[in-house]
Amino acid sequence: MTASDDRRLRATQAWLEIALAEHASIPSFARFSIELVALGAPPDLLERSARAMEDEVRHTKMAFAIASRLAGKSLGPSAINVEGALVKQPEWREVCRSTLLDGCIGEGVATRQAEFGAARSGSPEAKGFWKTVAREEARHAELAWSFLEWAVQQKPELCGYLQRELDRKVESMGLWPSDLEDELADLMEFGILSRADLGRIAVESVAEDIIPRAREVFAPVLVG
Asked: What tens digit of pLDDT does each residue of 118-172 get?
């Protein structure tokens, strides 16, 4: 196998992992929609959650198309076990915590990473994927913040809990060690971000985007 073949194989695997991650996000928004209904959230949030699920379907199809082209054969998802995904009445704390971690932080970080991918990708197809993801993940992050803004108005006591969860998450974050082997480091030609870039962008996003926004959402309720 030549060096070029090896890079293409690694890029194919990386895109397959991206596609599977996008595919796994589809049921997460289905669950979020059910949780919104169970908690009595406004219809606007329900509408936005339904749209977000459609976005994840689009991301899944685009990523599998790129992986399939690189592999020279059709690739697609397999079945996902969703047993027990929602087995009891949702609890405010757990829904808000998962929304903070997966929505506000996860989708917010993903937005910045996608923007970087769109700007640096050497593949037009990958550039188009990352542009789409950046635009739509930004909407998903905003949906998460909108839900938390509504939730803390209903349950002000959640603010302190969510702030502690955010602090705990921030403390656990850091850049990957510089000596860590990075099998993605030479794949930007295929639109794949290195682990070092992913880590750096995540830290920057939390410091510059997430923490200031959390102050805006939590502080007025805590002070009030």
From this structure: 999 989 999 999 999 999 999 999 999 999 999 999 999 999 999 999 999 988 8
Q: What are phi and psi of 93, to 5 degrees?
A: -60, -50
Contact 111, 137 (CB under 8 A): yes
Q: Structure tokens of 158?
A: 């959640």
Q: Which residues of 162-190 are buried (b: 16+ CB within 10 A; e: fewer)?
A: bbebbeeebeeeeeeeeeeebebeebbeb
Q: What is the mean pLDDT of each run of 10 residues along the chain (224 residues)?
A: 83 96 93 95 97 97 97 92 73 96 97 97 95 98 98 94 93 59 82 91 94 89 53
Give the range of the structural domain holding residue 178, as residue numbers without chain letter: 3-223
51-65 residues labelled b (16+ CB within 10 A) or e (exposed):
ebbebbeebbebbbb
User: What would the two tokens of residue 116 be?
Assistant: 């970087």
* CA atoms within 13 Å, Cβ hemisphere of 121: 19
pTM: 0.91
Tell me the CATH number at 10.
1.20.1260.10
Domain count, the chain: 1
